[in-house]
Amino acid sequence: MNPTPPKIQLSTTPEYREGYANSVQIRVNLWDFFLLFGLVNQTAPDAVMIQNFQGIYLSPQQAKALLNVLQQNVTQYETAFGEIKLEPHAAGGPGAGGVGGAGVVQ
């Protein structure tokens, strides 16, 4: 027999907020993943400022669950609207992340 799934209730705390990020930096260690969200502003032709506004720690299990949910949603999005093109510097170049490292997605 399959157990009955629990009823899930969603609520927001008084601290809840939404924001837009065009920069995500990822830091990884043995115990967790740290996602640092920010806004990228080009302040000069050769200078970029990133203003970080929110950092979130995830367990490795939650990071993998997030990866799976994002992949499913990106696949659905691309099926509906076409392929999402990445800028050449953001597609696996230096700083793309990995175990024990840090990555930046802009």
Task: Note the overall shape.
Answer: extended
**Secondary-structure element order, N to C:** EEEHE
Low-confidence stretches: 91-101
Beta-strand residue percentage:
25-35%
Mean pLDDT: 86
Question: Any descriptors?
Answer:
alpha+beta; extended; 32% strand; 106 residues; 4 strands
List strands and helices in order, with pairings.
Layout: E1 23-28, E2 33-44, E3 47-58, H1 60-81, E4 102-105
Characterization of this structure:
This protein has about 110 residues and is an alpha+beta fold. It has one domain. It has one helix spanning about 60-80; strands at about 25-30, 35-45, 45-60, 100-105. Strand 2 (about 35-45) and strand 3 form a beta hairpin. It starts with about 20 loop residues before the first strand and ends with a strand.
Summarize the structure.
This protein is α+β, with helices and mostly antiparallel strands. It has one helix at 60-81, and strands at residues 23-28, 33-44, 47-58, 102-105. A four-stranded antiparallel β-sheet has the order 3-2-1-4.
